[in-house]
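Researcher: Let's try something more involved. This one mixes different molecule types, so please make sure each is placed in the same coordinate frame as the others.
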Amino acid sequence: MNWAFPGDETPDPAVEHETATWGPLAAATRELVDLCVMSEVDAEEVAAATADVEAAVARLRKVRRQQTLGQEHLLNGRRRPWGNPVIGMRNPIAPPIQVHTEPDGHAECEFHCGPAFEGPPGLVHGGVVALVLDQLLGHAVGARGRPGMTGTLTIVYRQGTPLGDLRAEAWVDREDGIKTWAKAQMIGPDGVTAEAEGVFLLPRALRDRVPDAGTS
Amino acid sequence: MNWAFPGDETPDPAVEHETATWGPLAAATRELVDLCVMSEVDAEEVAAATADVEAAVARLRKVRRQQTLGQEHLLNGRRRPWGNPVIGMRNPIAPPIQVHTEPDGHAECEFHCGPAFEGPPGLVHGGVVALVLDQLLGHAVGARGRPGMTGTLTIVYRQGTPLGDLRAEAWVDREDGIKTWAKAQMIGPDGVTAEAEGVFLLPRALRDRVPDAGTS
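Model: All components are placed in one shared frame. Result:
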Protein backbone atom coordinates (compact mmCIF):
# COMPACT_ATOMS: atom_id res chain seq x y z
CA MET A 1 0.00 0.00 0.00
CA ASN A 2 2.39 2.57 -1.26
CA TRP A 3 0.01 5.51 -1.07
CA ALA A 4 0.63 5.69 2.68
CA PHE A 5 4.19 6.81 2.18
CA PRO A 6 4.09 7.70 -1.52
CA GLY A 7 7.34 7.16 -3.35
CA ASP A 8 9.38 10.31 -3.02
CA GLU A 9 8.87 12.46 -6.10
CA THR A 10 12.36 13.95 -6.06
CA PRO A 11 14.29 12.83 -9.15
CA ASP A 12 17.24 10.52 -8.42
CA PRO A 13 19.91 12.99 -9.57
CA ALA A 14 18.52 15.61 -7.17
CA VAL A 15 18.61 13.11 -4.32
CA GLU A 16 22.20 12.20 -5.16
CA HIS A 17 23.16 15.87 -5.37
CA GLU A 18 21.57 16.72 -2.01
CA THR A 19 23.19 13.71 -0.36
CA ALA A 20 26.60 14.50 -1.83
CA THR A 21 26.31 18.17 -0.80
CA TRP A 22 24.90 17.96 2.72
CA GLY A 23 25.82 14.43 3.81
CA PRO A 24 29.53 15.18 4.46
CA LEU A 25 28.66 18.35 6.43
CA ALA A 26 26.20 16.48 8.62
CA ALA A 27 28.69 13.64 9.14
CA ALA A 28 31.46 16.04 10.18
CA THR A 29 29.04 17.88 12.48
CA ARG A 30 28.05 14.59 14.15
CA GLU A 31 31.73 14.03 14.96
CA LEU A 32 31.93 17.58 16.25
CA VAL A 33 28.90 17.07 18.51
CA ASP A 34 30.53 13.94 19.93
CA LEU A 35 33.80 15.79 20.56
CA CYS A 36 32.01 18.68 22.30
CA VAL A 37 31.38 16.22 25.14
CA MET A 38 34.35 13.85 24.65
CA SER A 39 37.33 16.02 23.77
CA GLU A 40 39.91 16.87 26.42
CA VAL A 41 42.14 19.28 24.51
CA ASP A 42 43.30 22.47 26.24
CA ALA A 43 41.50 25.81 26.22
CA GLU A 44 43.67 27.26 23.46
CA GLU A 45 42.84 24.40 21.11
CA VAL A 46 39.13 24.65 21.98
CA ALA A 47 39.22 28.36 21.14
CA ALA A 48 40.81 27.63 17.76
CA ALA A 49 38.21 24.93 17.06
CA THR A 50 35.46 27.37 18.03
CA ALA A 51 36.79 29.86 15.49
CA ASP A 52 36.69 27.12 12.81
CA VAL A 53 33.07 26.32 13.67
CA GLU A 54 32.14 30.02 13.65
CA ALA A 55 33.68 30.31 10.17
CA ALA A 56 31.47 27.44 8.97
CA VAL A 57 28.43 29.08 10.59
CA ALA A 58 29.19 32.40 8.85
CA ARG A 59 29.29 30.63 5.47
CA LEU A 60 26.08 28.64 5.97
CA ARG A 61 24.19 31.59 7.43
CA LYS A 62 24.47 33.57 4.17
CA VAL A 63 21.23 32.01 2.92
CA ARG A 64 18.77 30.62 5.44
CA ARG A 65 15.54 29.00 4.27
CA GLN A 66 12.21 30.57 5.21
CA GLN A 67 10.48 27.28 5.88
CA THR A 68 11.72 24.13 7.55
CA LEU A 69 12.69 21.13 5.44
CA GLY A 70 9.50 19.39 6.60
CA GLN A 71 7.26 22.27 5.57
CA GLU A 72 9.01 22.63 2.23
CA HIS A 73 8.84 18.92 1.47
CA LEU A 74 5.15 18.87 2.33
CA LEU A 75 4.52 21.57 -0.26
CA ASN A 76 6.60 19.83 -2.89
CA GLY A 77 5.31 16.28 -2.45
CA ARG A 78 8.71 15.23 -1.19
CA ARG A 79 8.71 12.76 1.65
CA ARG A 80 12.38 12.25 2.34
CA PRO A 81 12.80 13.20 5.99
CA TRP A 82 16.19 14.90 5.56
CA GLY A 83 15.73 16.98 8.69
CA ASN A 84 14.29 14.40 11.08
CA PRO A 85 16.18 14.29 14.43
CA VAL A 86 16.28 10.46 14.42
CA ILE A 87 16.66 9.43 10.77
CA GLY A 88 17.47 12.66 8.90
CA MET A 89 20.52 12.59 6.61
CA ARG A 90 21.02 16.36 7.07
CA ASN A 91 20.37 16.43 10.82
CA PRO A 92 23.52 16.00 12.97
CA ILE A 93 21.34 15.17 15.99
CA ALA A 94 20.21 12.01 14.19
CA PRO A 95 22.69 9.11 14.58
CA PRO A 96 21.14 8.75 11.78
CA ILE A 97 19.14 5.57 12.15
CA GLN A 98 18.29 3.50 9.08
CA VAL A 99 14.98 1.71 9.52
CA HIS A 100 14.07 -1.43 7.62
CA THR A 101 10.37 -2.18 7.29
CA GLU A 102 8.17 -5.03 6.06
CA PRO A 103 4.67 -4.52 4.61
CA ASP A 104 3.17 -6.43 7.59
CA GLY A 105 4.21 -3.56 9.83
CA HIS A 106 7.49 -4.89 11.19
CA ALA A 107 10.23 -2.27 11.54
CA GLU A 108 13.73 -2.65 12.87
CA CYS A 109 17.04 -0.85 13.10
CA GLU A 110 20.56 -1.20 14.39
CA PHE A 111 22.42 1.91 15.41
CA HIS A 112 25.20 3.34 17.52
CA CYS A 113 24.26 5.57 20.44
CA GLY A 114 27.26 7.67 21.53
CA PRO A 115 28.10 9.75 24.61
CA ALA A 116 26.11 12.77 23.38
CA PHE A 117 22.97 10.77 24.25
CA GLU A 118 24.01 9.98 27.81
CA GLY A 119 21.55 10.37 30.68
CA PRO A 120 22.65 8.43 33.78
CA PRO A 121 26.41 7.69 33.71
CA GLY A 122 27.19 5.27 30.88
CA LEU A 123 23.52 4.87 29.95
CA VAL A 124 21.32 6.25 27.20
CA HIS A 125 18.99 9.04 28.41
CA GLY A 126 15.55 7.53 29.03
CA GLY A 127 14.00 10.24 26.87
CA VAL A 128 16.30 9.34 23.97
CA VAL A 129 15.09 5.73 24.28
CA ALA A 130 11.54 7.13 23.99
CA LEU A 131 12.53 9.28 21.00
CA VAL A 132 13.97 6.36 19.02
CA LEU A 133 11.11 3.99 19.88
CA ASP A 134 8.48 6.63 18.97
CA GLN A 135 10.12 7.05 15.57
CA LEU A 136 10.27 3.29 15.03
CA LEU A 137 6.61 2.82 16.02
CA GLY A 138 5.71 5.41 13.38
CA HIS A 139 7.57 3.39 10.75
CA ALA A 140 5.73 0.23 11.77
CA VAL A 141 2.23 1.71 11.39
CA GLY A 142 3.27 3.49 8.19
CA ALA A 143 4.61 0.26 6.68
CA ARG A 144 1.29 -1.38 7.53
CA GLY A 145 -0.53 1.31 5.54
CA ARG A 146 -1.97 2.94 8.66
CA PRO A 147 0.22 6.00 9.24
CA GLY A 148 -0.61 8.54 11.87
CA MET A 149 0.60 10.78 14.62
CA THR A 150 1.22 9.31 18.05
CA GLY A 151 -1.83 9.63 20.32
CA THR A 152 -0.38 7.92 23.38
CA LEU A 153 3.12 6.61 23.99
CA THR A 154 4.01 4.40 26.94
CA ILE A 155 7.54 3.29 27.74
CA VAL A 156 8.36 0.71 30.39
CA TYR A 157 12.03 0.75 31.35
CA ARG A 158 13.28 -2.75 32.28
CA GLN A 159 16.97 -1.94 32.79
CA GLY A 160 19.42 0.79 31.84
CA THR A 161 20.26 0.98 28.13
CA PRO A 162 24.06 1.07 27.79
CA LEU A 163 25.64 3.53 25.36
CA GLY A 164 27.02 1.78 22.29
CA ASP A 165 25.59 -0.54 19.65
CA LEU A 166 21.85 -1.09 20.02
CA ARG A 167 19.00 -2.71 18.17
CA ALA A 168 15.31 -1.89 18.21
CA GLU A 169 12.23 -3.39 16.63
CA ALA A 170 8.57 -2.48 16.32
CA TRP A 171 5.44 -4.19 15.04
CA VAL A 172 1.72 -3.57 14.69
CA ASP A 173 -0.13 -5.27 17.52
CA ARG A 174 -3.79 -4.62 16.59
CA GLU A 175 -6.08 -2.35 14.63
CA ASP A 176 -9.56 -1.07 15.30
CA GLY A 177 -11.15 1.52 13.06
CA ILE A 178 -9.01 4.63 12.99
CA LYS A 179 -6.78 3.37 15.81
CA THR A 180 -3.64 1.29 15.47
CA TRP A 181 -1.69 -0.14 18.40
CA ALA A 182 1.98 -0.81 17.83
CA LYS A 183 4.66 -2.18 20.15
CA ALA A 184 8.42 -1.78 20.18
CA GLN A 185 11.44 -2.76 22.18
CA MET A 186 15.00 -1.55 22.63
CA ILE A 187 17.60 -4.29 22.83
CA GLY A 188 21.08 -3.95 24.31
CA PRO A 189 23.89 -6.49 24.78
CA ASP A 190 22.03 -7.91 27.82
CA GLY A 191 18.60 -8.16 26.20
CA VAL A 192 15.49 -5.98 26.19
CA THR A 193 16.03 -2.70 28.03
CA ALA A 194 12.72 -0.94 27.33
CA GLU A 195 9.31 -1.74 25.90
CA ALA A 196 7.01 0.73 24.19
CA GLU A 197 3.40 0.84 23.12
CA GLY A 198 2.01 3.54 20.89
CA VAL A 199 -1.57 4.29 19.90
CA PHE A 200 -1.79 5.96 16.50
CA LEU A 201 -4.78 7.76 15.04
CA LEU A 202 -5.32 7.70 11.30
CA PRO A 203 -5.36 11.27 9.95
CA ARG A 204 -8.77 12.50 8.78
CA ALA A 205 -7.54 12.93 5.22
CA LEU A 206 -6.72 9.22 4.95
CA ARG A 207 -9.73 7.70 6.68
CA ASP A 208 -11.77 7.04 3.55
CA ARG A 209 -8.82 5.27 1.95
CA VAL A 210 -8.31 2.61 4.59
CA PRO A 211 -10.73 -0.36 4.68
CA ASP A 212 -12.69 -0.66 7.95
CA ALA A 213 -11.47 2.71 9.21
CA GLY A 214 -15.06 3.85 9.81
CA THR A 215 -15.92 1.31 12.49
CA SER A 216 -14.95 3.38 15.50
CA MET B 1 16.82 17.99 51.28
CA ASN B 2 20.01 18.75 49.52
CA TRP B 3 21.54 15.32 49.85
CA ALA B 4 19.39 14.14 46.93
CA PHE B 5 21.34 16.25 44.50
CA PRO B 6 24.38 17.09 46.60
CA GLY B 7 25.86 20.48 45.94
CA ASP B 8 28.35 20.10 43.14
CA GLU B 9 31.83 19.72 44.59
CA THR B 10 33.61 21.41 41.72
CA PRO B 11 35.25 24.65 42.90
CA ASP B 12 33.72 27.80 41.39
CA PRO B 13 36.84 28.82 39.44
CA ALA B 14 36.87 25.39 37.76
CA VAL B 15 33.21 25.76 36.82
CA GLU B 16 33.85 29.21 35.39
CA HIS B 17 36.87 27.93 33.47
CA GLU B 18 34.95 24.98 31.99
CA THR B 19 32.02 27.19 31.03
CA ALA B 20 34.28 29.82 29.45
CA THR B 21 36.20 27.15 27.53
CA TRP B 22 33.46 24.85 26.26
CA GLY B 23 30.36 27.10 26.31
CA PRO B 24 31.27 29.09 23.19
CA LEU B 25 32.12 25.90 21.23
CA ALA B 26 28.80 24.31 22.16
CA ALA B 27 26.92 27.51 21.31
CA ALA B 28 28.56 27.77 17.88
CA THR B 29 27.90 24.08 17.25
CA ARG B 30 24.20 24.55 18.12
CA GLU B 31 24.03 27.22 15.41
CA LEU B 32 25.82 24.86 13.04
CA VAL B 33 23.33 22.05 13.75
CA ASP B 34 20.47 24.46 13.00
CA LEU B 35 22.10 25.53 9.73
CA CYS B 36 22.68 21.93 8.64
CA VAL B 37 18.91 21.73 8.18
CA MET B 38 18.12 25.40 7.50
CA SER B 39 20.91 26.71 5.27
CA GLU B 40 20.32 27.07 1.53
CA VAL B 41 23.81 28.10 0.36
CA ASP B 42 25.24 26.47 -2.76
CA ALA B 43 27.28 23.27 -2.90
CA GLU B 44 30.60 25.12 -3.09
CA GLU B 45 29.88 27.06 0.10
CA VAL B 46 28.73 23.88 1.86
CA ALA B 47 32.00 22.18 0.87
CA ALA B 48 34.00 25.08 2.32
CA ALA B 49 31.96 24.98 5.53
CA THR B 50 32.51 21.22 5.74
CA ALA B 51 36.27 21.80 5.53
CA ASP B 52 36.00 24.30 8.41
CA VAL B 53 34.10 21.77 10.53
CA GLU B 54 36.61 19.04 9.70
CA ALA B 55 39.42 21.36 10.83
CA ALA B 56 37.64 21.83 14.18
CA VAL B 57 37.14 18.07 14.48
CA ALA B 58 40.85 17.44 13.81
CA ARG B 59 41.79 19.83 16.62
CA LEU B 60 39.35 18.41 19.17
CA ARG B 61 40.15 14.81 18.31
CA LYS B 62 43.78 15.18 19.47
CA VAL B 63 42.77 14.20 23.00
CA ARG B 64 39.59 12.20 23.51
CA ARG B 65 38.52 11.23 27.02
CA GLN B 66 38.35 7.55 27.97
CA GLN B 67 35.15 7.89 29.96
CA THR B 68 32.04 9.88 29.30
CA LEU B 69 31.43 13.10 31.23
CA GLY B 70 28.73 11.31 33.22
CA GLN B 71 31.04 8.47 34.23
CA GLU B 72 33.85 10.85 35.13
CA HIS B 73 31.62 13.11 37.18
CA LEU B 74 30.23 10.12 39.04
CA LEU B 75 33.77 9.14 40.08
CA ASN B 76 34.66 12.68 41.11
CA GLY B 77 31.51 13.56 43.03
CA ARG B 78 30.65 16.15 40.41
CA ARG B 79 26.98 16.43 39.57
CA ARG B 80 26.94 19.13 36.93
CA PRO B 81 25.35 17.45 33.92
CA TRP B 82 27.56 19.15 31.31
CA GLY B 83 26.92 16.39 28.76
CA ASN B 84 23.18 15.86 29.18
CA PRO B 85 21.30 15.99 25.82
CA VAL B 86 18.55 18.21 27.26
CA ILE B 87 20.26 20.49 29.77
CA GLY B 88 24.00 20.00 29.17
CA MET B 89 26.09 23.15 28.69
CA ARG B 90 28.64 21.22 26.60
CA ASN B 91 26.11 19.23 24.56
CA PRO B 92 25.05 20.93 21.29
CA ILE B 93 22.01 18.62 21.07
CA ALA B 94 20.65 20.28 24.23
CA PRO B 95 18.82 23.58 23.52
CA PRO B 96 20.05 23.75 26.46
CA ILE B 97 17.07 23.93 28.78
CA GLN B 98 17.37 25.68 32.14
CA VAL B 99 15.10 24.11 34.73
CA HIS B 100 13.85 25.94 37.79
CA THR B 101 12.75 23.80 40.70
CA GLU B 102 11.01 24.27 44.05
CA PRO B 103 11.58 22.02 47.09
CA ASP B 104 7.94 20.82 46.89
CA GLY B 105 8.78 19.07 43.61
CA HIS B 106 7.62 21.69 41.12
CA ALA B 107 9.87 22.09 38.07
CA GLU B 108 9.46 24.33 35.07
CA CYS B 109 11.33 25.64 32.07
CA GLU B 110 10.97 27.88 29.06
CA PHE B 111 12.96 27.09 25.97
CA HIS B 112 13.20 27.49 22.22
CA CYS B 113 12.74 24.40 20.07
CA GLY B 114 14.17 24.97 16.59
CA PRO B 115 13.85 23.21 13.21
CA ALA B 116 16.44 20.54 14.11
CA PHE B 117 13.77 19.05 16.40
CA GLU B 118 11.07 18.84 13.71
CA GLY B 119 8.97 15.70 13.31
CA PRO B 120 5.76 16.38 11.36
CA PRO B 121 6.06 19.56 9.24
CA GLY B 122 6.32 22.60 11.51
CA LEU B 123 5.85 20.52 14.66
CA VAL B 124 8.20 19.22 17.35
CA HIS B 125 8.96 15.48 16.98
CA GLY B 126 6.73 13.58 19.41
CA GLY B 127 9.78 11.77 20.76
CA VAL B 128 11.50 15.09 21.49
CA VAL B 129 8.43 16.12 23.50
CA ALA B 130 8.88 12.87 25.45
CA LEU B 131 12.62 13.55 25.90
CA VAL B 132 12.07 17.01 27.39
CA LEU B 133 9.18 15.92 29.64
CA ASP B 134 11.15 12.88 30.90
CA GLN B 135 14.02 15.18 31.87
CA LEU B 136 11.67 17.61 33.60
CA LEU B 137 9.90 14.82 35.53
CA GLY B 138 13.33 13.75 36.80
CA HIS B 139 13.97 17.27 38.10
CA ALA B 140 10.61 17.30 39.88
CA VAL B 141 11.19 14.07 41.83
CA GLY B 142 14.80 15.09 42.51
CA ALA B 143 13.71 18.46 43.91
CA ARG B 144 11.25 16.64 46.16
CA GLY B 145 14.14 14.59 47.57
CA ARG B 146 12.97 11.40 45.87
CA PRO B 147 15.28 11.05 42.87
CA GLY B 148 15.26 7.97 40.69
CA MET B 149 15.36 6.52 37.25
CA THR B 150 12.18 6.43 35.19
CA GLY B 151 10.29 3.14 35.58
CA THR B 152 7.35 3.96 33.32
CA LEU B 153 6.74 7.01 31.16
CA THR B 154 3.38 7.74 29.53
CA ILE B 155 2.81 10.63 27.14
CA VAL B 156 -0.63 11.64 25.89
CA TYR B 157 -0.46 13.92 22.88
CA ARG B 158 -3.35 16.43 22.83
CA GLN B 159 -2.32 18.45 19.78
CA GLY B 160 0.79 19.08 17.71
CA THR B 161 3.53 21.03 19.50
CA PRO B 162 4.61 23.89 17.21
CA LEU B 163 8.32 24.61 16.79
CA GLY B 164 9.33 27.82 18.55
CA ASP B 165 9.07 29.10 22.11
CA LEU B 166 7.65 26.55 24.53
CA ARG B 167 7.07 26.11 28.22
CA ALA B 168 6.87 22.94 30.28
CA GLU B 169 6.16 22.16 33.90
CA ALA B 170 6.26 19.10 36.13
CA TRP B 171 5.19 18.28 39.67
CA VAL B 172 5.10 15.37 42.09
CA ASP B 173 1.61 13.86 42.12
CA ARG B 174 1.91 11.21 44.86
CA GLU B 175 4.37 9.03 46.76
CA ASP B 176 4.10 5.51 48.09
CA GLY B 177 7.12 3.78 49.59
CA ILE B 178 9.88 3.61 47.00
CA LYS B 179 7.61 4.84 44.20
CA THR B 180 7.00 8.42 43.18
CA TRP B 181 4.45 9.50 40.56
CA ALA B 182 5.11 12.77 38.79
CA LYS B 183 3.18 14.58 36.09
CA ALA B 184 4.21 17.08 33.46
CA GLN B 185 2.84 19.06 30.57
CA MET B 186 4.17 20.79 27.49
CA ILE B 187 2.59 24.13 26.74
CA GLY B 188 2.61 25.91 23.37
CA PRO B 189 1.04 29.19 22.25
CA ASP B 190 -2.36 27.44 22.05
CA GLY B 191 -2.20 25.72 25.43
CA VAL B 192 -1.27 22.24 26.60
CA THR B 193 0.03 20.06 23.76
CA ALA B 194 1.07 16.95 25.69
CA GLU B 195 0.70 15.46 29.16
CA ALA B 196 3.14 13.08 30.78
CA GLU B 197 3.16 10.80 33.80
CA GLY B 198 6.29 9.14 35.09
CA VAL B 199 6.73 6.51 37.77
CA PHE B 200 10.09 6.74 39.47
CA LEU B 201 11.74 4.13 41.66
CA LEU B 202 14.02 5.24 44.47
CA PRO B 203 17.51 3.74 43.97
CA ARG B 204 18.44 1.03 46.50
CA ALA B 205 21.32 3.10 47.84
CA LEU B 206 18.96 5.88 48.92
CA ARG B 207 16.06 3.87 50.38
CA ASP B 208 17.21 4.01 53.99
CA ARG B 209 17.59 7.78 53.76
CA VAL B 210 14.02 8.59 52.77
CA PRO B 211 11.29 8.45 55.45
CA ASP B 212 8.52 5.92 54.69
CA ALA B 213 10.42 4.40 51.80
CA GLY B 214 10.10 0.94 53.28
CA THR B 215 6.32 0.69 53.15
CA SER B 216 6.02 -0.98 49.75
